[in-house]
Amino acid sequence: MKYVDEYRDPAAARLAVRRITELAEGGRNGVPYAFMEVCGGHTHTIYRHGIEQLLPETVELVHGPGCPVCVIPMGRVDDAISLAEQPGVIFTSFGDMMRVPGSTSSLLEAKARGADVRMVYSPLDALKIAMANPDRRVVFFAVGFETTAPSTAVTLLRAREAGVTNFSVFSNHVTIVPPLKAILDSPDLRLDGFLGPGHVSTVIGNRPYDFVPQRYGLPLVTAGFEPLDILQSVVMLLQQYADGRCEVENQYSRIVTDEGNPIAMRILQQVFTLRPHFEWRGLGFIAQSALALNEDFAAYDAERLFALPGVRVADPKSCQCGEVLKGVIKPWECKVFGTACTPETPIGTCMVSSEGACAAYYTFGRLHKTAAGLAAASA
Amino acid sequence: MTAVQPEGRQELVLERVETFRRRRPRLTDKVVTLAHGAGGKSSAALIDKVFLEAFRNDALEQLGDGALLELPSGERLAFATDSYVVRPRRFPGGSIGHLAVHGTVNDLAMCGAQATWLSAAFVIEEGFPIDELTAIVADMAEAAATAGVQIVTGDTKVVDTGAADGCYITTAGIGIVPEGRRFGADLVQPGDVVLVSGTLGDHGVAVLLARGDLDLEADVQSDTAPLHELMEVLLAAAPGTRWLRDPTRGGVGTVCNELAADAEVAVVLQESALPIRRPVLGACDLLGIDPLYVANEGKLLAVVPAEQAEAALKAMVVHPLGTDSAIIGRIAAEPERIVLLETSFGGTRIVDMLVGDPLPRIC
């Protein structure tokens, strides 16, 4: 496929891996380099193309908090289910949010119990459903970082323009910079740099990450989502160490600019306001890390229109997702990994989505040695 | 308590996970969800706990595409049934009528049998247009004629408006298995070769796009087709064929997982060898769905001895339904019960069983 195959070329991959192996030799003072990929989309690429098995032992990838599905706390999922079960409501959601467990069930189970839950691919589809069903109240479960927030904002602007009154949004939009700061502020942090979020940066640009090198002394490379993007970004991070540089660089320059997308930013400001604080699964409360609908759009705000339980459900005590997210412990070091917490019955955020660090390790962990053996045999 | 070295502890944890994964999935749900119908882990759990538990017998416990039954004369029958609930009922390349015949004909073909007779039962929602019903039944008649099978008995039930979505069809079929023909996971050996009879995911993507929820347009046709002839072509060229399946719901990924588990082997697939049409790959990429888990309705997946693989491939590519046939992988002894994919990019990953339906990803 044009513009896709070029970024999946095995020969270029071998070159990049050779470069990584050279640059990372000996690790950082004898310890493997640990780079966090921020986005769930990165994690997906890394697994889908088997990138971890290509990397030398001197480079480790730590899976970060950028999977918007994983970071929604259980209490908010419970609120969503309660919305879906209100009489007359059509509840619309992205597909991968449907299986995420709340404290007692998931949206998929609510649907099986009779709630009208529909999967949509865009908030505009939810608005279409509202216009086609004027006698029903249609709620859209908005999740995601600055990547998906503009499309929710555009939908709300259109809804207001068209005078639609039976449409509302349950906003769980979050912002990327505060959780990065929360991770960086952790005293037991063990990271040597970041593969920065690609799609978020198309909206907010590269400037907001300047604090990472400036305040925390770690390099960040905004990375694309094709397998070669990932490898090239690792090369760029290691090159910074080799050159004694520490800065924000842009690997995804074919899409991301320093300034981002001013139109999208303006629309966000038109519709949303920052919440004073928001709870993140695995990371706890983070100040000014999420978006609520502002006063102008109160009439479209499901949190104001419906009575929600709004009960905070604490992450289980035994869950160590926070430490896994910060790279402090490995998934297998968690007390409940593989016993109480499995992909079928996840306790924590890292086991929820197939891209979570723990779910991935659960599925792929055994492969590391086997694959290393296979690769050696076929080489 | 003695301190365990970190490396040792990791081994212990991995072993525990391994033991857990070897267990058949367990049913923990209180109600049936769509995941139970998706052909992955949840389906297996429901079948084990509810159906197998109640009906247990030797023929059923094989959990094949169809049951193999021996007549007093010594002849062997293959017997299969399937229900069809597709939405929309008509899609590029076919309709629910074609599926209802091809699906059961193919289940029998995967047992090595030519379908001889079919039954057809209809559950129809009150208000369903007779014109549409006539068209669906005409498709069934056409498909049956092509497949050389007669529909010899049937049933019709009409339910209240809202109690069913339009029209559901159940067919069952019987065919005779020629003497000496036997396939099974127990025959599969390390070194064997995995063959597929054409491009993957056409049916699933065609139906997904035909639903129209996506505002995506691509020229993708369902591959719905009867596989009985192709099966004979394969067996004539590769009489040592060990194992046969049609990768419908759950796709090649799910069927290979069942093979790996039943045969206690590794199935090693090569991504670069997988035949997938550009538009199918493009649609899957956009939606974050893996084409390995997308349904096919006119493809067979076979394990053949390595020395017969080339002959099988040569014979299959000249059949109109097998032009895109390809050798897509091999059987290895280790790692047991695992499906591996050697990616085109040079990495390796596990292709695991899905828990439920593949859901599109947002990021």
Helix content of chain A: 25-40%
- How many alpha or pi helices of chain A? 17
Structural class of chain A: alpha/beta
User: How many E-type strands of chain B?
Assistant: 14
**Number of contiguous helices of chain B:** 10
Strand content of chain A: 15-25%
- Quaternary status of these chains? heterodimer
Fraction in helix of chain B: 25-40%
User: What is the overall shape of chain B?
Assistant: globular
Element order of chain A: H for helix, E for strand: HEHHEHEHEHEHEHEHHEHEHEEEEHHHHH
CATH C-level name of the largest domain in chain A: Alpha Beta
How far is the N terminus from the C terminus of chain A? 28 Å
Radius of gyration of chain A, whole Å: 21 Å
Strand content of chain B: 15-25%
Which class best fits the helix and strand makeup of chain B?
A: alpha+beta
Please list the strands of the largest sheet of chain B in the order they lie side by side: 9-11-8-12-10-13-14
What CATH calls the topology of the largest domain in chain B is Phosphoribosyl-aminoimidazole Synthetase, Chain A, domain 2
Strand count, sense and closure of the main sheet of chain A? 5 strands, parallel
Name of the CATH superfamily of the largest domain in chain A:
HypD, alpha/beta domain 1
Regarding CATH, which class of the largest domain in chain B? Alpha Beta
**Mean pLDDT metric of chain A:** 89
